[in-house]
Write a structure and sequence with these properties.
This protein has 319 residues and is of the alpha/beta class. Helices cover 37% and strands 15% of the residues. A 7-stranded parallel beta sheet has the order 1-2-3-4-5-6-8. Strands 7-9 form a two-stranded antiparallel ribbon. α3 links the parallel β2 and β3.
Length: 319
């Protein structure tokens, strides 16, 4: 592939630029809660989730399922919010909370098709784990693409790090090879993969974080979410932080790490996130992350001063 021609004024290939280039407009994500769980919470692998994961299973910003129990109702509620902001009508149905391929096959088919059938949905993005996509689920995804050929299906995988020692510490629950195999199977099925990476995990140094970026370049992820590690109330990470065992990144350190990661990242990879959100009522640290606009403005300003750009230090592998 060649690097995209139009990044719409940003020094990296944002999801916003991709959507405008591909679909002619900005697409907004509506975060959904399908009422699923996770093997790290139902006892299969554990009960407390990863050390940083809140009780909401990363779905703290999803539409309230109690008031909107069906996917159709959640989409309608989300679309109403975006219309109030005079945003574009088309959206991405984002299955966010917990592990969204971890459930009975008939139910998964029902919720995916319910979202895809909405005329205002351009496609779906499914957050899950690479150890939760067996062949029967992969077949379901392929069939879904065939049934809705004018819409897309993306899979978001929570890798967080390629470092096995860190993965054990955060209780990820699977080895790196499981992620690699899953990405290969999804790519062979022509299903784009978005990989979640967390910067600032306990014990990791910048060189190790860059090794994760290099690994993603090699495996061929289509998109990436670069996420600051948040300390949320009620998590095991919060206990570690309160005991003085974890020091969150400063804004300056995070911006510096983020720029280094972007410079080493392939210019073909779409950036879906660069900082992330922590719910105000749950966030213990770092407090500076609550001002997302300031973080992004600082990033853009610093990259401009440094003449930094996604892929500027990327070395394309040649056969």
């Amino acid at each position: 592939m060649t690097a995209p021609m139009n990044w719409h004024g940003k020094p990296y290939y944002s999801l916003d630029a991709y959507c405008k280039n591909t679909y002619g407009e900005k697409l907004y994500k509506i975060a959904l809660n399908a009422g699923l769980t996770c093997p790290n919470r139902d006892g299969t692998l554990g009960h407390n989730g990863c050390i940083f994961c809140s009780a909401g299973g990363s779905g703290d910003f999803a539409i309230d399922r109690q008031n909107h129990p069906s996917i159709h109702a959640q989409l309608a509620a989300g679309q109403a919010l975006f219309r109030c902001k005079q945003a574009t009508r088309r959206c991405i149905a984002y299955f966010q909370a917990y592990t969204n391929t971890y459930g009975p096959l008939p139910y998964l088919q029902q919720i995916y098709e319910e979202a895809m059938s909405d005329p205002l949905v351009a496609g779906i993005s499914i957050a899950t784990r690479p150890d939760c996509i067996p062949e029967k689920v992969l077949t379901l995804l392929v069939n879904l693409k065939e049934k809705f050929p004018d819409k897309f299906v993306w899979i978001e995988l929570g890798l967080q790090t390629m470092q096995e020692e860190t993965a054990l510490f955060i209780r990820r629950g699977y080895p790196l090879g499981v992620y690699d195999d899953c990405v290969i199977r999804l790519r062979e099925s022509h299903i784009p993969v978005v990989t979640h990476v967390i910067l600032g995990l306990p014990g990791e140094i910048p060189e190790q974080m860059l090794q994760t970026i290099d690994h993603l370049n090699g495996i061929g992820t289509w998109g990436i979410k670069l996420q600051l590690l948040h300390v949320l109330r009620g998590t095991d990470l919060a206990s570690l932080y309160e005991q003085g065992g974890y020091l969150p990144l400063s804004k300056e350190t995070y911006i510096s790490l983020l720029i280094r990661c972007l410079e080493h990242l392939s210019p073909d990879i779409v950036i879906h996130r660069l900082t992330g959100d922590g719910p105000k009522d749950l966030l213990l640290a770092p407090s500076w992350s609550l001002n997302k606009r300031d973080v992004l403005n600082t990033l853009h300003h610093t990259m401009k001063l440094q003449n930094a750009r996604q892929g500027s230090h990327y070395e394309r592998l040649t056969p």
